[in-house]
Write a structure and sequence with these properties.
Elements: E1 2-6, H1 11-22, E2 26-31, E3 46-49, H2 55-62, E4 67-70
Parallel strand pairs: 1-2, 1-4, 2-3
Length: about 70
């Protein structure tokens, strides 16, 4: 499956993203890095720095995604 995780660089988001990647899923992560650290993400997570209020960016990331975890 293809997932989008908002807040992907935070404690919960990074744990979820890394687990999903280990299980063989495609994961896109979005985070504004106000408190998160992208260094904790697996290299297989397709990370984008940005805000969930940036509708054009969010819309682009949502394309062909099966499930969204909103943790931002």
């Amino acid at each position: 499956m293809r997932f989008l995780i908002t807040g992907a660089a935070g404690f919960l988001g990074s744990s979820l993203a890394n687990r999903l990647v280990r299980e063989g899923h495609e994961v896109r992560g979005l985070d504004d890095l106000s408190t998160g650290d992208p260094a904790v993400l697996s290299p297989e997570v397709h990370f984008t720095r940005g805000d969930v209020n940036d509708r054009p960016k969010l819309w682009t990331l949502l394309q062909e995604v099966d499930c969204v975890y909103h943790l931002a």
